[in-house]
Amino acid sequence: MLPRVMGWVSYVICPETDTRGRYYESGELKMAVDPAQAKVIIDRYQATMHQPLDVGDERLRSNPPLLAHYTSVEVAEQIIKNEEIWLSHPFYMNDLEELRFGMLLGIQRFPAHVETLNETPQRKKALLDAFAHFVGYMNEQTLVDTYVLCLSEHAPGDTDGILSMWRNYANQGHGVALVFNTRPISTPPQAPLWIAKVVYKSPTERIQMLENGLQQWVSMTQSLNLQDDRLYLAAYAAFYFIKTFALVTKHKGFAEEAEWRVIYVPDLDQQKLLVDQFGYHISQRGAEPKLKFKIKPVIPGAPLPLSLANVLEFILLGPSHSSPLAQAAFRRMLRGTSIEKFQDRVFASTIPLRPKFA
Predict the structure, then answer these.
(1) Pairwise CA distance, residues 153 & 60, whole Å
(2) Which of 62, 58, 85 is nearest to 2 (CA)?
(3) Rounded CA gap, 220 and 116, in Å?
(4) Is 0.85 topped by the overall pTM?
(5) Residue 136 contacts by C-beta under 8 Å, 6 or more apart in sequence?
(6) Residue 250 needs a FRET pair 20 to 30 A away by CA distance; which of 103, 149, 179, 335 works?
(7) Can you give the residue ranges of every domain in the chain?
(8) How many Cα atoms are found within 13 Å in the side-chain-facing hemisphere of 18?
(9) How far is 60 from 38, CA to CA, in rounded Å?
(10) 61 or 201, higher pLDDT
């Protein structure tokens, strides 16, 4: 099921609503089902529908991967000195289909699947109205604060990195890769963030995956035969599946990036624990929304508190500035920071990439 209670992850137990436990139907604010009962129903949907998307959960439990964040030297310096990492809005990423492909397709296809249900016109309308509410609420309230941090799975023992990642995300090899170890990320969760492994498919395969999930939704909705006042939960299950599908699937042309994602969606943060970390950045594209996440717990109780020093494994310097002088200067950058003792964990990539300068 997605999202899992794993490390940074929090579990949503009631729908994405204006206030906890309430929802709008035909303009009237109504009380929702008790959150514990809602969780049981949503769990049943997710246990089946999300299996093809849930490719990283068992890996996190049994063989936690190393994950590398490729970036510029300037950004790496700010991450290290401020112990803060920025999550970006998916609309500003290099995949032009980010989020849009899955959401638009799912929104278009959902009504056709509702029509296949053996239900009365009134109950079908209730499902469509509730689904439209969740979509509308997302567009008006939560879409702007959907954030993603992109990481690349990193092979143990590799101190070179991936050439295409250096070129595309680390300033043509002049950047840095911060390699994180997911082993220390334990339960209970320490922040309302969700870790997911990206699923790569062709456009045809992605469409089929979405259709399969919605067909499973039809079967489950038919078998559950929910009471009228609980139909909105079925609509939410379909909506959340579509949104998850949109966030964790990509075109197979990006497969070499072996991407994992740390994702923030407001419906994981019912207590608004990270709202004060919402911010912005001025770039050549104008003002961009950002989640400026402080690398520390906002939910206490974990045996190993979340911190940069606890999750960082080592640092790689890009192949275009991997001289001994550059290594010495970068190690100097670590002095006086929480990772000062990592000076012997700064490595230089040996990939023979010819330096390029603007």
Answers:
(1) 12
(2) 58
(3) 13
(4) yes
(5) none
(6) 179
(7) 49-63+83-160+186-310
(8) 12
(9) 27
(10) 201
Instruction: Give the separation between CA 174 and CA 73, rounded to whole angstroms.
Output: 7
**pLDDT (tens digit per residue) in 134-179:** 999 888 888 889 999 999 999 999 999 999 999 999 989 999 999 9
Report CA dihedral (55, 56, 57, 60) to the nearest 10 degrees.
150
CB-based contact 189:303 (threshold 8 Å): no
Is 68 within 8 Å of 180 (Cβ atoms)? yes
**Count of C-beta atoms within a 10 Å radius of residue 100:** 13
Q: 214 is written with which tokens?
A: 């919605």
Side-chain half-sphere of 99: how many Cα atoms within 13 Å? 17
Handedness of CA 259, 262, 264, 268 (dihedral sign): positive
The single residue listed with the structure tokens 């056709």 is 112
* Residue in the structure block whose two tokens are 């579990």: 11
Structure-token pair, residue 131: 């689904």
pLDDT tens sequence across 251-260 = 999 999 999 9
The residues, any chain, with a CB within 8 Å of residue 269's CB and separated by 6 or more, are 10, 192, 275
